Amino acid sequence: MTQSNERTPRKTHRTRAKVNLTQAFRQAPWRNQVQFVGLFLLALVVVVLVASVYLSISGRAAAAGLHAYSYSLERQDLERAIADHKSQIANLTSSAVMEQRAKDAGFERIDPSQAVYVLVPGYAGRQPVVLAAPPGVSNSGISLVKSAYRQSLWDWMFSGINRLSDSVGGSTQ
Amino acid sequence: MNLRSLSRPKALGLLLTAFVAVIAIQMIRIQTSTHAAYLDKWAQNYGVEVRTVQSERGYIYDRWGHLLAGNKEVYEIGAELQYVKNPASIASAVSTLFGVNYDATYDAAKLVYEPGNMVYVTLADFVTSDKLEELINLKKQYEAANPYGENPDLPSLRGLTWTAHLQRTYPENELASNILGFYTYYDRETGKGYFGVEEEYNELLSGTKQKVVIKLDPYEMQEIPSAPAAASLVLTIDREIQRSVETILNNAVTKNKAANGTIIVMDPETGEILAMAATPRFNPNNYWTYGDVFTAGISFNKAVSQVYEPGSVFKVLTMAAALDTNTVKPTTEFVDTGVIEVGGWEIYNWDRSAWGRQTMVGCMQHSLNVCLSWIATQLGPTSFYDYLNRFGIGHRTNIDLAGEEVYPLSQPDDPTWYTINLATNSFGQGVAVTPIQMVMAASAFANDGKMVVPHVLKAYIQDGQQFSTATKIAGAPVTAATAYTLTEMLAVSLEEEASDALVEGYRVAGKTGTAEIAVNGQYSSYATNASFVGWGPVDDPKFIVYVWLEKPKSSIWGSIVAAPVFRDVVKQLVVLMNIPPDDQRFTLQAQ
Known about the structure:
The complex is a heterodimer.
Chain A: H1 9-25, H2 29-92, H3 95-104, H4 153-172
Chain B: H1 8-32, H2 34-46, E1 48-54, E2 60-61, E3 67-80, H3 87-98, H4 102-109, E4 120-127, H5 129-145, E5 160-169, H6 177-180, E6 182-183, E7 193-194, H7 196-200, H8 202-206, E8 209-215, E9 232-235, H9 239-255, E10 260-266, E11 273-278, H10 290-293, H11 302-305, H12 315-324, E12 333-336, E13 339-342, E14 345-348, E15 356-359, H13 360-365, H14 369-379, H15 381-390, H16 419-426, H17 435-443, E16 451-452, E17 457-462, E18 465-468, E19 473-475, H18 480-497, E20 509-519, E21 522-536, E22 543-550, H19 558-561, H20 563-576, H21 582-590
Parallel strand pairs in B: 2-9
Antiparallel strand pairs in B: 1-8, 2-3, 3-4, 3-5, 6-7, 9-17, 10-11, 10-22, 12-15, 13-14, 16-19, 17-18, 20-21, 21-22
Helix pairs in contact in B: 3-4, 3-5, 9-20, 12-14, 12-15, 12-18, 14-16
């Protein structure tokens, strides 16, 4: 700080007092150094923290990606296993096998004259197989992965802002 | 620098600065190292994977949900050349376990690894899981004795890998193979359905096939696209009825020493094919034997692909046309002199006898060619062929099975038509049909005069939803009254004849047929097509059955060889379809 002392002696005296006052509040050099080092360390810590958070999130994102890939492979394995099990069940319950099992168990084909028929009220008889729901609303195009798992922080933030602005706009109408 | 002069904050600052600097230097070093270029190249080559995503081929079920065609897990065995230590061991193991050629396997396994070019060879494919288990155990044994395959004197299966994939399978083997067709699963890239349902619905069963680019960079990985499931089919076939019918047909062909045979069972109200058996058949799991089984001239499914002269079963169409036009009534009398002249040619009865005064029921009961020729002349060619067209003769039924054949119907305007055709056509000679055409035509008599389109697809499942097929009416060639009258006439004629087609407790209607086969341009008296078409129960038909035995040797007559087959089929049908005997059914209906 600089002060002019060319006007009056009185003024000069006051200026001196002020200079002395300024000197009284000046930080000691070691304190300035400590402050500088502290600020530098603070900045460094912030950088390290941000980098750590970034690395952590990146690592988790990479791990999630690898998991998704491995789950995809696992799903394919499971689909193949399901198909294989269906075929195995079909082999074990094929008409030839079932007939042989029935014969082994002492059953034999019935003659039409031996059959006894009973009227069962409300029974509509054996119905053909229904393996899936009848036609309706198709949901096959919907992704199984929720949007929360596919959005970045920015996407989420902007979508939130958009929602907020929409809702505010809606309330003014 | 005097360490003592450093204050603690300064020391901490220096330490952290050094730490950050080391990280920064390491990052720069990695980016500029000699490996960086290699890593970049590797990332370019392997950063993405181009994968063919293909739907699993759709399943085929019978009407009750029994699997008729599915997929099973098998394995491709290969060698990753980079890791192969002992090609001889690999060749020995693979050839012994999977029966492949040793020399070819050895030559493949000893190929030199070339990055980006020669990295993998396929040694065997379609290996079953139990066989693979043996290979895995062997590899473990070798690995225990020779870790990492470092000792070249000891066997090692290092580098041997296996990859799972699916293979089409038919759990019922030969059952309904004529309906199903087959899928050429050995062609993994270009496999296709042939014959039957596999060919007819190949597109639905195949689903989609597309190449997708998958990013392998974990940071860029996204949801891996998968092909939507292919459609699965639910057929109208009843597995148990099909099996019974095939067994009966096999026995009939063997017993009568017939060349081949065909049986069709259909629901006349809906057109649903409940069973369709034909010989020869084969196991579609071994589809490469097709050429051995179906030699030249043998159709894959004679029920839809083989035209033949049906003989007297065709008389039901002639009689129906005459009844529908009021040309005759059941009580109309005809004096059979044993011969009739049409277009300058003489027509005789099957036994060359004169049967005297006959009603129309008698004409059908004794299957008199002379009588039916007379009826056709009374109808006139225009009306007669108009009715044949209405019955779909000369036209495809459009059944949903691949390979349907049709023989054109020669009509008065055609240059190949002569007046004699009117007479011969009336009793099923000089006209050719497939069994399925006859079934569709006869369905009109069992369904109040309405003719239904035969079909084998009951429903299909796509995108998690089941879509059912609807009954298609192909027309109403005759009135309901005509259908009842004809059915009654045929039921009476069977009863009065004490036919072998009769089933105790059930009233059925039907007609036999014996057609001479043309050999070297002349009809042969010893080679015939024996047929029977029938339906029942007469008051409320639930089934229509068509039987055709080709060139039976035990007897040439349809009434002797085909009628008993019809009876055997119906005896099984009424049990499997839960149809009570007529008297019990009337009692139950009255309750």
